[in-house]
Amino acid sequence: MTTVGKLQAALAAATNEVTIAAANLNFDFTLVKFEAPQEYQPLGNILSTKRKDNAEHGSTHILARRLGALFEGVCSDTPNLLESYGTRASEIAKAAKSISEPYIDTLFGEYTGIDGTSIWAAATSSKSALHVHLLACMLARMWTAPEAIAIWVELIAERKKHIANEMERGEPVRFSLAAATGQDITRAQLAAWDTSARAWLSTADTVQGRNQKQLELILKNIKLPVNQDLSVFPSVINAWSLAVETMEKLLSGMPQAVQNGATLLGLSAWHIYPDMTIFSPKLVTVKMDDPLVAVGGVLSLGLSATPRIADDDHGVYWSLSLAQLRHYGRPVKSERALGNSSQISIKQLQLVTFSALLSMWGCSEAQGDLNAETVVSMVDYIIGSKHGSVADRQLLRWLRDSACAYLNRATHDIDLNIKLIRLGRRRAERFFEDYEPEDPVTADHSNYFFNILDQLVFMRVLKDDDARVAYLRHMASEMSTSSTLPDDFIIRCAHQIQVSNNTSQPSLDNHDCGRSSRSETSQLNEPSSRSSTRSSQQRQTPPGAAYHSKQEDRGVSDDRQLQNLAQSPTNSSAGDEDSDVYESAVEELTDDIESCNTGDKRGEISGRGENAKEEDSETEEKGYNKEEYNGGEVWDEEGYSEDEEYSEDEEYSEEEEYDKEERHNGNKRPPSTNTVHVYSFATAIPCKALDETLVHSRWLPYQFRDGIPPEGETVTFTADEIFSSWDDCVQIVAAKEPETYTYHVVFGDPDKVALYVRRKPGAPYSLDYTVKLHHLQWCIEHKMIDPSMLLQKLVYPYGGGGALRRVLYVLSGVAAIYEDMPDATIDIGILNRPLLRTRWAKDLVGRFDLRVPAMKSEAALAFSVISYFESGIHDVAPDQLDGVIAISSTNSLFVSGPIVQDPYESILNPFSVRKILGNVGKPGLTFLLPPQDPMTREFDPTSWRLDSHLPFDGKFVRSFEGTSVHLSFTEYHVQMYDGSRGAHDNQMSFLESVISVRDNGQWVADVDPLPVIDRGYGHEIRKLPPQLPCSHEKGSQPNTDITAVDSWDELLDKPDGIFVIRTGDNWVARLAATLVASERMKTKSTSYAITVCPPDTCWVCMQQSLSNHVYVF
């Protein structure tokens, strides 16, 4: 029997298990290498040495040969497509070269740059292998990595069955094809193949950004399935072959019309852009001007309608039933759409989160701009005042940048930004959920605009009573109409003063602030009734406070009571007798008030007497803080009380906040004083003066007669004669008919400053007594806001808002981590779950300030955050990532900043992460871990003849010229549970990574980089602080015995005492020397320090504190 006959017989017998007798052929055709076509040569020249070697001789080349042979003949010959694709790939590789060049000399150099491994492996294998690479790009473009691998597994299995069936039927089969069916292809190999294709797509999309974005805008408006077949093998083979054939014709200049999405998927995956004519909904011609497409190669879309069989999302979509996705269960029906990229930038995330914030506030899109503008004004105001911690400023910057992103949403990518805004609104509730959503208190995080517009909160953030009065006047003017009279509003200010018990003073029951007790309501028109103790306050309405129905009895003069009273300072319409009684009481009280401890630092009306300075000094001597009188508020310089701390987890009800505010206001005073309350009054609407000008008036209590009155206002000291006060209302008792001049509080804080309105029947205007955003803006513009109080209310909101604040703090911390990675993207999958319930969120909330020198777990926390935002789903606890030095994902390496820069620049600086174009060729997220006990070259005992250990002469010498640092991997590659139970393909793993120091190619040592990454781990490594100017000549010899180390053998044979490793300005050698010295010193000494020095170090001025001290110079 011939060889072919024997092979056919063996294949027929093994059809069911698809094992082919070709495996017995003693010939491994995969080791054959061909010269890559000319168009692909520029790409091959740009690949790193390690990637090129893998593509030509390693596992990727073997896989490309096997796949090319297995699928040979499925696609027809397409010389124009393969040539054009090679040209475009080389163009992309050249454009991307500059991105990775800064890191070529680092230890990651062999893994930086574009990942064109699968392209070069296919180009050096066969034309059919290049077709298979094109298929890999199509699958990577549409499907997730586990789904694509499952498709590959099923394709290979079905293809082998198909070949076996052909042999069984006696059909001729090429030798290479028969041999290929006997080759084993593992899921791990397919995962690496898919990873390379994904990395290439990501890089090519960035380089071809403009064309790719334009193509996506076209495709998103077209509803086309790739095809209607749910079976993997026929669906994929048909889509692949159709896309290849159609593209070949387009490149040849032949116009083509498409009726499904296969070709469009090929356009997107291969980065070739023909001109297009779109017939639906109207005729549109799109010029792409791709020089690779011959004239006439126009693609027509929309000639026929294809019914949508799944959801209503726009774009090209593909539905398949995946049988190899899970270990157990029925095939999983999956559907993906083209153009639904899950990656967005940090700026786009800010737009999404601000939109979510607006949704939480209940704002419509039309209200968004005003909210964003107010946020920007508020943040600029606070930052300009230089208040707040570093963490607070991070939060403020995030808020401001998010608001700016919202305001600038129409400047570019309008359609995309609209989608992002709507996405944020849909995901808001879920994204902002607190730790414990079932708790109604912590779940209440929707207070509008951080609750700053609450009346009580807003009045407290104003600087002082003058600011509060000015704001209430502004508010009253907004509500006024042409029929509004000056006496329709009145403003009342409450003041606290201290009266000493050491002097003879009247009873508080007879001389308090003028609040009425329940027993005195029948004597409201008598002056003596205007006093009561604060402890006996009752919320009551005085007699005659009801609407006065006899409007005809009121004359014109009655409508101008405030004007008349302001112009008559000595007016005593309450009666002379009453005035005498009151004046005698005032005289009695005055003596006691003169020693009150009230200041006037902010320019308020002061009631300080002649003995104020003596009282101040006496109080300070007794150990009491000097108090500020600020409309009844007492604060320290930072705006906080001394005995109160805010916790970020505290949440207050309005009542609790009010009580706490009262405790803020309570002075720390000697037990020999009592607090009494007095009131002043002010007009809200200006009155006409005698010269017809409009002026405001103030009525101050007699106790303020020695104070500085407000400028530009009419001031009298007859407040207690003219007005009577209750908790919620004020009455002008000096009016002809006091009951008709009763005012009820409508806005503000009656215990501080409040606006009162006179209730009149049939008033022609309706009043809106709420704080508006433009009120806040107006107060900011007029610098009436206390920035420290505003920040306090923003950072520590009461009555809910804790979850929202924590989410914003977390996001601002994330932004700090990504600060050195401006081109990094994040996965929008993070919006699908509460951010506060991630395993790293509480660590970040508890450590808001990421811009301080890194502590032991700072790197682990940063990598935990990055792994979540990069994948959108993988939530890894920081303690699981202790020791991780880098992450590899798709086409990105996220590496610890200190291991790719001069240690002098990184020591004591904030920990940072750098993003480098490249990868280590592993699927999903790969965490790089150094070995626990790195090895060092054994010391050569004969080297003493060559190594001299000469005295250090102070010279700056570049002694380690041949030093280089390299990265390699051991066989320790451990899968990490990624939460996908039952799945075949895991997307997280640990890879043991060895950092080796070499001297002119010769191995010196493997090093542990953690001493320069984690400060807690490597506290012995220091940075020489700046030295004071001196007159010593640069390079002068030190006056201390110091040994010079100028070779690796001299360092390995560590000298005694103090020595200097002379690396010069070679930062790679400085890093290597620092790490090797750290390893050597740990084995030789228990007490040591390594100090990295700048080039201008003066060794004469140098001071040493340890006997075992190493300098890297």
Plain-language structure description:
This protein has 1113 residues and is α/β, with parallel strands linked by helices. It folds into four domains: 3-337, no CATH class; 343-450 and 792-872, no CATH class; 462-547 and 558-767, no CATH class; 925-1112, no CATH class. The protein has 34 helices and 30 strands. The strands form six sheets. Strands 9, 10, 11, 12, 13, 14, 15, 16 and 17 form a nine-stranded mixed sheet that branches. Strand 16 and strand 17 form a beta hairpin. The longest helix is centred in the first third of the chain and has 24 residues, at 145-168. It is flat and about 120 Å long. The model is unreliable at 1-26, 304-312, 438-445, 503-541, 543-559, 569-670 and 849-856 (pLDDT under 50). Residues 527-543 have a biased composition (Low complexity). Residues 502-674 are annotated as: Disordered.
Instruction: Report the total helices.
Output: 34
User: What's the overall average pLDDT, rounded?
Assistant: 79
Structural class: alpha/beta
End-to-end CA span: 78 Å
Biased composition (Polar residues): 562-574
Biased composition (Low complexity): 527-543
Biased composition (Basic and acidic residues): 509-518, 549-561, 599-629
Biased composition (Acidic residues): 575-594, 634-659
